[in-house]
Amino acid sequence: MAEANWYVVHTYSGYENKVKENIKKTVENRHLEDQILEVMVPMQSVVEIKNGKKEASEKKMFPGYVLINMVMNDDIWYVVRNTRGVTGFVGPGSKPVPLTEEEMRPLGIHVDGDPAADVKKDRAVVVNFGEGDSIRVIGGVWKDTVGVIQSMNHGKQMVTINVDLFGRETPVEISFTDIKKL
Predict the structure, then answer these.
(1) Domains in the chain, start-ordered, CATH in brackets?
(2) CA within 20 to 30 Å of 84's CA: 110, 139, 162, 182, which one?
(3) How do residues 164-173 score in pLDDT, each as one tens digit?
(4) CB contact at 8 A, 16 and 66
């Protein structure tokens, strides 16, 4: 029997989960469990900071795409390609190209079953402000100070604003959670 590989399927925007469910139902109805092994919509944990409050949520890593671990043959290609919401496979022309092991590792998927392939999952931080935005400090030493964001450090989750200190502008770092966009 041929080897199963991971393939990427392009879908209509917002149809990723529907396509996943449709493919799973087709696998169950047609008894294709030995040919379509897994269907997934890769998700990423993100922390959004709005008005100084952190909110954890899940976001699609690749909107408009679904990953399928399957044995590629003409019949399976036809079944997946003709699933409602699927616009095609990723690859040149009509020939799907399987993902490589290097492409799968950042997604946390082990192609070779090697636990050393685990990748530390970082949470992305999404904020509703950026450089040049006016903000008010809502916590910490500089509470109630108003300033303009000069720079942002997403790694440290800090912004730099200039404050008036002893008659001159001085740059100050403030945490993402201590500011609110005006």
Answers:
(1) 5-124 (3.30.70.940), 129-181 (2.30.30.30)
(2) 110
(3) 777 788 888 8
(4) yes
